[in-house]
Amino acid sequence: MAEAPSRVPPADIDVAILTKELEVAFAEQLIKCTKTLQLDMVAEREAATATTLEYLLAQVDLKLLHFKQELLNHVHKELQQTPLPFRNGHPTSFKESTMGNDVDESNIRSASLVSNPSELEELAQEHPRLPPKEGECVHPIDAVIEEAATPRINAAAYILQFTRVHAPEKGLHDCHSGESFPYETLVDVVACLAHNLRTLHGFHAVDIVWLPMDSNSPLRTFLVMLAVWTLGGSIVWSSVHPPLVTWVCVDSTFDRTSLTRSSLSTHIPDGTLHVLHVDAPLEQSHSDVLYTDLLVTPATTPSTVHPLKAPHWVLPSKVAMTLHLSNANNQDEPSVEFSYSHGDLLAAMETSIGVFRSRFQRAQSSFMSTLPLAAPESLTFVLLPSIFYGTPLHFLTPSHVADLPKALRLAKPAVLVATGLHLSELVKANDAMTCLEEVVCIGMSVPSLPRTLRALHTLSSKWRPDLKFRRLYASPATAGVCIESPPMAFPIPPTQLRALGRAVSNDVQVCVRSLSTGATLGPKQVGELCVCRLDLHHLTQQFPTNAMAYVDVDGQVHGIGSKDGIVNLGCESTTTLELEEVLASHPLVEDAVVSAAAMTAYIKLAPAAATYVDDALRSVSIFAAKQIPPAKQLSQIMRVLDIPRQLDGQPSCPIGLYETNPAY
């Protein structure tokens, strides 16, 4: 039998030696950890210092360029006032002519870093981006918007100055064409476009570019917009030919028959119009300009235009973009125009950044937008903030929204921004929605929204249980988002189906106004929703949205339909939106509009019902008769080919023009 191992008596163990060895080992580990932490802190401080120096250098460049431009303007002004004897070689006459004039030297030089060198030192000391001591957390980009809230540069130059610090793998992507541009290359691309537009095709600061409302190449169109702003031009979004335009930027789907000689002669004095194709044209003239030709870097002549280093001819007060809202199907209806200066766009961008700051700042966050590029909120809520923070952005135009499941699988965005009209395409995504963390719906409620939210609840419970849903409302009067609601988890309560939220900031005023008296209504009183931005053109007049709404006791705005959507039926009253939601809940109905005057419903059937239209109409009629109370029954139901809607989701044209196949 083996003997048991003998144990060392406790008296033979030297406790002091063991304690000393433990202390030495602990000290060695502590020294290693201290060195590692010290190296990390030094690296972070060096990175923060480098970023701060880049920002200071950029500010110095901008101020020097501003001083140079003012000095050149002063020289040109003096040359214009110079008498002819001086130009002919008699400087004495010029000296005598200017002796009696008092020259204010303070007007010659601007208040820049050159005339006030101490401003550079104050900017470096007071700037919060440089940590005063080691170990302090810094956010290099957060303070930029506070320093340059009112820049004296155009929107393109302001937003492009932040692209130099973004990671190379982050940029803008077109989901349909597969084209992408990293943020760090945007400055060179815009500079090349602007240089070729100016030198090869004579683009001037007074030129106006017409952009049709439907653009199938949003990425290239946006780059053209930045180049136009760099050169001092402006753009006009319009579905019809606007006056005084000198350029038109089109894609392959544009109908050239609208650009006839007779129509151009009524808008342009010489009857000429430069046509810029952003993609391969189906029909091309010899004078047309191709986007691919503008991207060719000049081989011999260096680029004379740079978005950041060239003199900025544009003041923030100059008009940068005009939105022309007209009804092409009803010429008698007056059109509405909204003009935005460079300062207005930047102010709306700052408001959007305040709404979504935490989401934009997340390192792994990425966006996908299905908003039309013509919508101001697409620019001020999605595009400019994404470039500001370096957040990857994926474009998917409304005309290609049917490819949403495929685009989600390839791009894997964390946030999807869409309107209520296109949100139903997300229901078809199935497992492709697992990458989404939040769905943002912009605009008024549409009839199909309740059915879509119910389907999203069923889908998210299987693939993404923690999916969030958020409602926003954007108005052309505010150049962007003006009402926001907090993120909500599925299922959405019935009381929150039409809740738009509250005003995004103190600069935006939202109220409900009486249709009869025009007075501001209190809680739970139905009226017309009106919005106004105080710092936009310095206006205080409320802009009516043609949408009916009310404010609850908590201050949230609830949209209930269009302005003409209140129906009085004897002792009862209802809204056309309620009837439209009942019709849209039918699986064969894609969209619906109810005329309050004749109680006639116009429905757009789903593509699946194209082969049996009569049976589908009969099914919808029976369904409506069962679901709608007898006092609110419809007089007839008409099928239409399409229901055009405005950017916020409201119907925009007479639906009766598309009447086919009445159903009783």
Primary descriptors:
about 675 residues, alpha/beta, Rossmann fold, seven-stranded mixed sheet, AMP-dependent synthetase/ligase domain-containing protein, CoA-ligase activity, ANL_N_sf
Could you characterize what this model shows?
With 664 residues, this protein is an alpha/beta fold. Among the domains are: 155-254 and 270-340, 3-Layer(aba) Sandwich (Rossmann fold), CATH 3.40.50.12780; 342-499, 3-Layer(aba) Sandwich (Rossmann fold), CATH 3.40.50.980; 566-640, ANL, C-terminal domain (GMP Synthetase, Chain A, domain 3, 2-Layer Sandwich). The chain is built from 16 helices and 27 strands. The strands form four sheets. Strands 1, 2, 10, 11, 12, 13, 14, 15, 16, 17, 18, 19, 20 and 21 form a 14-stranded mixed sheet that branches. Strands 7-6-5-3-4-8-9 form a seven-stranded mixed sheet. α7 (186-199) packs across α8 (218-230). Mean pLDDT is 76; it is low at 84-117, 123-151, 261-266 and 657-661.
Mean residue pLDDT: 76
The CATH architecture category of the domain at 155-254 and 270-340 equals: 3-Layer(aba) Sandwich
Annotated CATH topology of the domain at 155-254 and 270-340: Rossmann fold
Structural category: alpha/beta
SSE blueprint and pairings:
Elements (H helix, E strand, L loop, with lengths): L14 H66 L3 H4 L3 H9 L18 H9 L17 H4 L7 H6 L10 E4 L5 E3 L3 H14 L8 E4 L6 H13 L3 E5 L8 E4 L10 H5 L8 E4 L11 E2 H4 L24 E7 L10 E6 H20 L5 E3 L6 H14 L3 E3 L8 H8 L3 E5 L18 E5 L6 H15 L4 E8 L4 E5 L3 E2 L9 E5 L4 E6 L13 E7 L9 E9 L5 E6 L3 E4 L2 E4 H9 L4 E7 L4 E6 L7 H15 L8 E5 L18 E5 L1
Parallel strand pairs: 1-11, 3-4, 3-5, 4-8, 5-6, 6-7, 10-11, 10-12, 12-13, 13-14, 25-26
Antiparallel strand pairs: 1-2, 8-9, 14-15, 14-16, 15-17, 17-21, 18-19, 19-20, 20-21, 22-23, 24-25, 26-27
Helix pairs in contact: 7-8, 11-12
InterPro entries: ANL_N_sf (IPR042099)
Protein name: AMP-dependent synthetase/ligase domain-containing protein
GO molecular function, one term: CoA-ligase activity
